[in-house]
Structures are given as structure tokens and as C-alpha cells.
Amino acid sequence: MSCVYLIGFMGCGKTSWGKKLAAGLGYNFIDLDHVLEAQAGMTIAEYFASHGEEAFRRRESEVLKQTDYPENVIVSTGGGLPCFFDHMDWMNDHGQTLYIQLSPKALSSRLENAKTPRPVLQGKKGEELVEFIEHKLAEREGYYLQATHHVSGIDMSVEGLVEVVGLTAI
Ligand SMILES: Nc1ncnc2c1ncn2[C@@H]1O[C@H](COP(=O)(O)OP(=O)(O)O)[C@@H](O)[C@H]1O
Ligand SMILES: O=C(O)C1=C[C@@H](OP(=O)(O)O)[C@@H](O)[C@H](O)C1
Ligand SMILES: [Mg+2]
């Protein structure tokens, strides 16, 4: 299938590697968080602050299912998306899913230095952040592991990802 969903914990690299993989294949690129932001006219952080997480989960579900996907597309999802509603089954029915796996320590150092705020983390830092990620990842990983492919988020390359998904550049 010519649609690949990138999934995994916040900070694993879905947005940045989705863009690179799409460019490498000559595919379209969609980041569902960016679609939600454009449709709602506000950032994810503003959406959480004004509507709360429950409303965000309903909205991201609508965005996943309503997006009019072009052919040949790489879709970067938000880190929580696979863990709500029927999303894992839905994505596996509509394309390939690729889980980018990273340890809580590596995730936390990336998230501490990231420019995009993640409201779920509530500004946590240091050891408190690592512990929070360990706990949250344990809750979420059962969903992520239902992905078609699993790759390590360390030493990634576009060539490696292209080989994993088995697609040819257009
Ligand atoms: N392979 C990598 N090595 C080091 N830093 C990375 C790597 N991939 C992504 N990052 C950085 O990690 C942060 C989170 O990346 P991002 O693509 O936004 O992740 P996600 O969309 O999964 O939350 C960004 O600051 C990005 O520059
Ligand atoms: O894991 C989560 O619950 C979230 C991850 C974020 O996306 P990234 O995984 O791209 O940071 C974004 O959808 C929102 O802040 C909630
Ligand atoms: Mg992202």
C-alpha cells in the first residue's frame, strides 16, 4: 500500500523523519497535528488549554479519518493517536504502520530540547520527565507494537526507512 503512518512516543522523530522519508520517496507528506492546527486555527498547546485533552482526542480522531489522503503519502501522527479509539486497526487497514522505538532517556533528552511544547508533559524536566515517560510508554507501547514495522530511532536513515517499508521512489 502506498500510505505509511509513522507512530511512536512524543519526540521519537515522527514529524522530522516523516518529512525526510516523503522527500526521499517523492511522496506527499501530512502531519496530522499540523492539519488539526490549521483546521482549528490554533496550536496544539492552545487547543489543549482551551478545550482539554478529551476534546483534542475526538478532534484528532476526526482529522485521522476525514483527511482526504492523496495517493503515495507519508502520514506522521501524534504520539497519543494510536492509543485511542480504533486507530491502530484503522491505520493498519488503510496502509502500513511504522513504529519508531526509543528509550525513555533518549526521548526525554530530545523533548527537553524540543521547540514544540507538548502539553501532555506539563513542563516536566530531568528525572521527573524520565519517570513520566517510562510510565506513559508502558501504557502506550502495547498499541505501538501492533505496527507493521518497528525501527530503532537511533541511527535512522532515509535509505533504511525506504528499505523497511519496501516502497520505490516515484
Ligand atoms: N535522529 C535524531 N537524532 C537527534 N535528534 C532528533 C532525531 N530525530 C528527531 N530529533 C529531534 O527530536 C525532536 C523531536 O522530533 P519530532 O520529529 O518533532 O518528533 P515527534 O513528531 O515524534 O514528536 C526534534 O527537536 C528533532 O529535531
Ligand atoms: O503523545 C501525545 O499525547 C501527543 C503528542 C503530540 O504529537 P508528537 O508525538 O508529534 O509530539 C501531539 O499530538 C499532542 O501534544 C499530544
Ligand atoms: Mg510530531
Automatic annotation (TrEMBL):
Q: Name one GO cellular component term.
A: cytosol
Q: What enzyme class is recorded for this protein? A: transferase
Q: A biological process (GO) annotation for this entry?
A: amino acid biosynthetic process
Bound cofactor: record note: Binds 1 Mg(2+) ion per subunit.
Q: In which pathway does it act?
A: Metabolic intermediate biosynthesis; chorismate biosynthesis; chorismate from D-erythrose 4-phosphate and phosphoenolpyruvate: step 5/7
Essential cofactor(s): Mg(2+)
Residues annotated for substrate binding in this entry: D33, R57, G79, R140
**Positions contributing to ATP binding:** G11, C12, G13, K14, T15, S16, R118
The reaction(s) this protein catalyses: shikimate + ATP = 3-phosphoshikimate + ADP + H(+)
Q: Which UniProt keywords apply?
A: Amino-acid biosynthesis, Aromatic amino acid biosynthesis, ATP-binding, Cytoplasm, Kinase, Magnesium, Metal-binding, Nucleotide-binding, Transferase
MF GO annotations: ATP binding; magnesium ion binding; shikimate kinase activity
> Please, which domain of life does this record's source organism belong to?
Bacteria
Task: Supply the EC number(s).
Answer: 2.7.1.71
Annotated compartments = Cytoplasm
In terms of InterPro entries, this protein maps to:
P-loop_NTPase, Shikimate/glucono_kinase, Shikimate_kinase/TSH1
Q: Where does Mg(2+) bind?
A: T15
Q: How does it assemble?
A: Monomer.
This molecule's function is given as: Catalyzes the specific phosphorylation of the 3-hydroxyl group of shikimic acid using ATP as a cosubstrate.
| UniProt record similarity statement | Belongs to the shikimate kinase family.
Protein name listed in UniProt: Shikimate kinase
Q: Which organism is it from?
A: Mucilaginibacter gilvus
Its gene?
aroK
